[in-house]
Amino acid sequence: MPAVLHLNPPRGCVVRVLSDLHLAHKRGRAPDVPALAESMRGVDMLILAGDTAETREACAERELSMQRREQLRRECRQRGVQLVELAGNHDPDIEAQLALLWNGSVAVMHGHSLIPCVSPWSREYLACADEVKRMIAASPAAEHDLAARLALTRDISLLLGRHVPPPQRERRRGLLREAHHCFWPPQRPLSIVTAWLTCGRRAHAFCDRFLPGVQLLVIGHFHRSGQWSNGTRRVLNTGAWFEHATPFAADLCDGRLIRYGPHRA
């Protein structure tokens, strides 16, 4: 399967974009698969924009998460919903990373390609930052060539997947547990806030460089819904099915956005 998918849904086809289901993740908040599939009534095509499952090599939830992803695939087939899966940094086993719809006027991607190092706030990145920097330096074409950028993103995601911290017995409770997760190591909160604040600017810069014909870009990855306009182009983030985040859905039809808002399943 190519890294870039070109899709031209037929007239009247309703396309829904979701991202960051993080199926089986211990901090994930996705509903059970039948309930999620049932919420697709009226949808003809479902695009999952990455981090649907936890398929990273060292992830403790890998087997269960992949089982739930397969269950979702079956549910979509049974309901006649065409399923399009795109890769995120948590499921780099998916080959397709970008979907272009309606002759390239609309693009959908996970969003980790906006940042060459993928997830600078993650513990996985902090464990192998020097190696990631060497990979970026060895791929100068990724600064101007879309195929090279997507290939670099996938290679870095696979590397980070080998550095997922092993599960530990949880000894902290309540606010102490949350504080440790969010603020340790100290680089994490600064990187997270910086990513949130620069998300829209990065997305528009990515389009200017790699996808100049795109009028609507839908992404996930940053776990915060939002929308940013720049001239005639609009960028949407669909949030996440995760603790302290809200999942949004973007519904499209005939190249137009017909709904963007919280998803209820």
Explain what the structure shows.
33% of the residues lie in helices and 20% in strands. With 265 residues, it is of the alpha/beta class. It has a single domain (4-164, 178-262), classed as Metallo-dependent phosphatases (Purple Acid Phosphatase, chain A, domain 2), CATH 3.60.21.10. Strands 1-5-6-7-9-8 form a six-stranded mixed beta sheet, with helices on one face. It has a five-stranded mixed beta sheet with strand order 4-3-2-10-11, with helices on one face. The relative contact order is 0.18.
Brief overview:
With 265 residues, this protein is an alpha/beta fold.
Question: How would you describe this structure in keywords?
Answer:
single chain, 265 residues, alpha/beta, Purple Acid Phosphatase, chain A, domain 2, six-stranded mixed sheet, five-stranded mixed sheet, 7 helices, globular
Shape: globular
Proportion of strand residues: 15-25%
User: What's the CATH H-level homologous superfamily?
Assistant: Metallo-dependent phosphatases
Number of helices: 7
Q: Ends: how far apart?
A: 30 Å
Work out the radius of gyration. 18 Å
